[in-house]
Design goal:
Strand content: under 5%
Low-confidence stretches: none
Order of helices and strands: HHHHHHHHHH
Shape: globular
Radius of gyration: 19 Å
Mean pLDDT: 90
Number of domains: 1
Structural class: mainly alpha
Distance between the termini: 61 Å
Number of helices: 10
Helix content: over 70%
Length: about 250
């Protein structure tokens, strides 16, 4: 028998046991495809080491994904007490990412300024992603008493970070196909992420015949953030601002 929230949204469905671990696995695949080939090329070419903040950020990001995977596995195994006990660590890790993400982005642009890897206006994506992540993860923690809302907001917070993976293996071929500009940039860097977000909503419609209000709020915020980041990236005045941010 399904347990319903006050909104009438079913807390659990028999398919959840496999769907949510599958979604987390997809997140891992997207991130690995985005980062691993580049890291391997970096090592093979004996290029200069990444700045320390990049390593720290990478550890925090991977740690967050590992913790998310563990938490989903604990729920799948119905080990709810352990899930709640380690949840506080997840909140601290999320807070660390909000600080480390923009910091690492600025340092990376400073290091790559003037090279083909430099793109200061891209700070719009990295900054807004962290703002959206902070709000979604914060709401997930605040609503931890509502399992359905908590789960969807935390998954959305992570899904919207997959832009970092998608952008590294989809952006170039899509750019060659679509060209430059606001709408092409939106599709090139955020299309994959939005597809996964819509997939989560589609799953709920299939299994619950409705969307959870927390999903609607979180997804709307994330997509609005993506649209704003893409607009800001191509906005001429932002280039000057981004250059000032990195000290040029």
């Amino acid at each position: 028998m399904l347990l319903n929230t006050p909104t009438g949204f079913a807390q659990r469905h028999s398919w959840d046991r496999n769907f949510f671990p599958f979604l987390v696995a997809v997140i891992w695949v997207v991130i690995m495809l985005g980062f691993v080939p580049g890291i391997m090329r970096h090592v093979a070419r004996h290029e200069p080491d990444y700045p320390l903040i990049i390593h720290i950020h990478a550890v925090a990001f991977v740690g967050f994904l590992v913790l998310l995977s563990v938490q989903v596995a604990l729920i799948r195994g119905r080990r709810y007490v352990v899930h709640r006990k380690i949840g506080a660590f997840g909140g601290a890790l999320a807070l660390a990412m909000v600080v480390l993400g923009p910091w690492a982005a600025i340092v990376s642009e400073q290091v790559h300024f003037g090279t083909k890897l430099g793109d200061p206006p891209f700070l719009s994506v990295e900054f807004i992603e962290m703002i959206v992540f902070a709000i979604q993860a914060g709401l997930a923690i605040w609503l931890k008493g509502d399992a359905a809302a908590h789960k969807r907001l935390m998954l959305l917070a992570t899904l919207f970070l997959t832009t970092a993976g998608f952008g590294r293996w989809l952006a170039d071929p899509l750019q060659a196909l679509l060209g430059d500009g606001f709408l092409p940039f939106l599709a090139e860097f955020f299309g994959g992420t939005i597809f996964l977000v819509v997939g989560l909503g589609t799953y709920d419609i299939i299994t619950r015949h409705r969307l959870h209000p927390a999903y609607v709020a979180g997804a709307s915020l994330g997509i609005a953030g993506d649209v704003f980041a893409a607009w800001l990236y191509v906005y001429p005045a932002w280039k000057a601002v981004s250059l000032r941010i990195i000290g040029h």
